[in-house]
Specification:
Elements (H helix, E strand, L loop, with lengths): L24 E5 L1 H10 L10 H6 L9 H16 L4 E9 L7 E13 L2 E10 L2 E11 L9
Antiparallel strand pairs: 1-3, 2-5, 3-4, 4-5
């Protein structure tokens, strides 16, 4: 007997409305997540993996790097939009650091949807305040040949 993978499904562009609110996503901020993603993005700055050196540099602990924050913002939107979209742009600003032991809760709202291009305003907040805020723009397959 041959096993087959389930068909990938996703949201249709026609089902998206400006003002639509995305479901929240809570991301536990473990030390492993912070260190592993820093290494995976080849960011070997000691403040992302060495607690003692991070404290010497004025931080209370290691903290998440911006490449991981960018990736999590993109993941938040693509998990909602579906597997067929292409990330066109991630434009975020960082605020409060993401430290181990906290949780970052991602929220979002569709701010534009035109010609297959969808822009989502995103925010990631933790117990210290807003960690990231900005926009993620995705394109549905029929929009790939159009200018964004």
């Amino acid at each position: 007997m041959t096993a087959t993978a389930p068909a990938l499904t996703g949201r249709s562009y026609d089902d998206i409305a400006v003002g639509e609110v995305l479901p929240e996503l809570a991301i536990p901020l473990t030390r492993t997540l912070i260190v592993a993603t820093a290494i995976a993005t080849r960011d070997f700055q000691d403040v992302h993996h060495d607690p003692e050196l991070a404290r010497e540099r004025g931080s209370k602990d290691v903290f998440m790097n911006i490449l991981t924050s960018n990736g999590l913002a993109g993941r938040f939107v693509t998990d909602w939009a579906g597997p067929f979209v292409t990330v066109r742009r991630v434009k975020i600003r960082l605020g409060a650091p993401n430290y181990p032991g906290d949780t970052m809760t991602m929220t979002g709202e569709v701010v534009s949807a035109e010609n297959g291009i969808v822009e989502v305003k995103v925010q990631g907040a933790n117990s210290l305040g807003t960690h990231l805020s900005g926009t993620v723009t995705v394109a549905y397959p029929a929009a790939e040949g159009r200018d964004a």
